[in-house]
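Q: Could you predict the 3D structure of ATP-dependent DNA helicase II subunit 2?
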Amino acid sequence: MADKESTVYVVDLGESMADCHNGRVESDLDFGMRYVWDKISDTVAASRKTWTIGFVGFNTDETDNELADKDKLEGYDNISVLQPIGPMSMTELRELRSKVQPSRSYGADPVSAAVVALKMLEKYNPKHKIKRRVILVTNGESNIDDEELDHIAAVFNQFKVELIVIGIDFDDADYGFKEEDKSTNKKNNEKALQQLVEKCNDGVFGTMQQAVDELSIPRIKPVRPFKAYDGPLTLGDPDKYPSAISFHVERYYKTKRASAPSASTVVVSNNNGFSQSQTYKDEDGDSEMGGAEFSGVKQMRTYKVNDPDAPGGKRDVDFEELAKGYQYGRTVVPFGESDLSITKYSTKKSFTIIGFVPFDSYNPFINMGETGLIVPQKMNEEAELGLSAFIHALYEAESYAVARYVQKDEAAVQILLLKPNTGLEDEFECLYDVPLPFAEDVRSYQFPPLDKVLTVSGSVLKEHRLLPNDDLKDAMSDFVDAMDLSNYDVDEDGKPVDYAPVDEVYNPIIHRMNQAIRARAVDPDSPIGQPAEILLRYSKPPKKLLEKAKHEIGNLIDAAELKKVPEKAKGRFGKKDTVKPLSGLDIDSLLGGQPKRAAISSENAIPEFKQMLAAAEDDETIEKAVKQMGEIVRKLIKDSFADVFYSRAAENLGVMREELLGFEMPMLYNKLLRALKKSLLSGELDGDRREMWYKHIVGGGLGLITKEELDVSDVTEEEAKAFAK
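A: Sure. Here are the predicted C-alpha cells for ATP-dependent DNA helicase II subunit 2:
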C-alpha cells in the first residue's frame, strides 16, 4: 500500500513578518516561505493523491476557522484556513501564493493556530492510519498563552501528530546560530514553543536559517527495490546431470543510471487567445499549468513515395505497406513483417554460470554498465545455504564467476561477472554483478608511446622536443603530490577524510533541472536563481588546495615553458586577421605563401575550404569558395541514405558559418542557408529531408547569423527565430 501523509503548514502572516532583520534584504515572511514553498512544490511534483496539504495563516486580517466560526471559542481570532487539507495541484498552489501576504494584524496565538491545524487533521482522517504533521513557521513576535501547553501536547500525542516548529531567527546552539539583541517578548515566546515541542512525543524545534541553508542540498528520491530476476542460478544443467548445482535467487539493481525529468510538448492558450508551445509532464502523464488551458500535442506522420501519375508527383502510402530495410553496402535489404523473426535471436529466461576467472586477471575498465545485487530467495533456507556456500567458495578461491544471463524470454543475452561479498566488512552476504563486453564491444586502438619517439626509420629517441625532460618530470611529480586529495582534509581526530564521498556527489544536470522546474512552478514570473553551490563544489579544485600548491604550480609553468595563447582576432572590413606567431616569424613567407586552390573536393572539404579562404585576395574568391562548399553540403544530403551523411553536412555548414563570421560576411551564409532550407523542405534533395533541417541545422545552432552575433548582419533575432520554424 502506498504511503499516506498529510501536512498542515501554519504560517505567521502578521505585520512584523513584513520587516527585514539580521542584515537580510528580504522580509521575514519571504525568508520563511522559501522553506515552505520548497516543501509544498516537492509534494505537488510527486503528484500523489495520498500526499495531502493544508495551509493555515494566523495574524490575518480576517477570521476563518471552525473553532471560531462554528464552535464560537475564544482565542481563535485572526486565524484563517487558506487551504483545506487535500491533494494540491499547480493551480491551487498559485492561488495559495496570491493569498500569502503580510497583514496589519498581530494579536493571534501561534499555539491556537496549531490547534486549528490539529482539528483539521483529526477531521480529515480520524482513523490514525496516516502520517500526520503540523509545521509551524513564525518569527516569535506574537504573544503565546502557555497555560494549556500540557493539554495541547497531550492531544498531539493522542492523535500521533508530529509537531515541527521552525522559528525565524530562533537560537540554535547545535547549529551555531544566535540572534543578538533579541526582545524579551520574543525570548519568552521562543521558550514557550520549545517547551511545547519537548512535551510532544514526536516534535522538532529548529531555526529557519538551518532549514533554508539545507534547501540547497539535493533531495534524492527514494527508490523502491526492483526485482530484475527471480529464478534459478545454475552451474551445469540440472535436467541432464545430477551433480549440477541450482539454487533460487533474486536479482536487484544496486546502481542504475538516473535521468533528468522528461518533458512533453503541449499547446498553451493564454488569456489573449494566442497559443504558444510549452513543455511539462507529470508522473501520470497528465499535464497541468496554472492559469492556462492546454492539451497535449499528438503527432501524425504520413508516408509518401514518388509517383509521376499522382497529383504533385507523390502518393500517400499506408503504414501497413511499409517494410523495414537494412543497409547492405549501397543497397537496401528489405524484411517484411513475417521475416522479422528470422533476424531475432530467440532466448529463454536463464541464469547460468559458464566459468571462473582469478581476481588478478580481471581488468575493471571492461565493466559495461549498471551493477546488480544477487541474494537468495526469501524464506528459502536451501537457497540461503547454497548461495552462502557458493559465495564463500569464490572468496576462498580468489575468483570471480562468469555467468550467462537472460532476464526474461526473448530478452537480450548478457555476460555478467559475479563478485563475492562475504559480509565480513558490511555484514551483508550477496553477489555483485557487472555486465561484461562481447568481442564486438571492445575497442582496441593503437596509440604512440608517451615515453619515447619512434622515427620513420625505426629508431627510438629518448630525448625529443615532444618528450618531457627531467626538470619537467620533477615539477609535474611535485605538482601531483601537492594536489593530492587523499590528505586534503582531516577530521577531529586528525585522520584523513574522503574529499568526495559518493553520497555527497550529486548529478548537477538532474538537480539543476529540478531546481529550475520547481522555481518556475512556484513563481513563473521570477528569474531562476543560480545553481546551488553544492552542485558546483567539485567542478573546480578547492581554493585551499590551490593556495597550498601555488609554489608547485609556478614551478610547473616555468618548467613547461607555458605561454598564454593570444585571443583569436576578429576580422575587419571583410578580411580575416591572422594570428601572429609568438616567435615573430612569417610562416607564410618561409613556406612560400598560401597555395591558391581552384576547387574544393568533397573528400577533404573543410581543410581545403579554409585554405581557399586564407589565400583569398578578393571577395569574389570567398564567394566562389562558399558556393562550392554549399554544393558539397547539398550533395551530401542528397546522397545520404536516411541520416547517414547528415552529420558531415552539418559539420561543413558549421565550419562555413564560423569562417564567414570571422570574415564579417554574414550575407553569404544567410543567402546560402535560405536556399538550402527551401530545397530541404520541398523535397528537392531526393526525398523528405526535414530531419536535417530541424535536428541538425536548427537543433545544432546553425541558423541565420543575426545582428547580435555580428553588427553588419541585417537579420534580427526575431527574424532568425521565425526563419527556424
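Q: Anything worth pointing out?
A: The longest strand covers residues 227-235.
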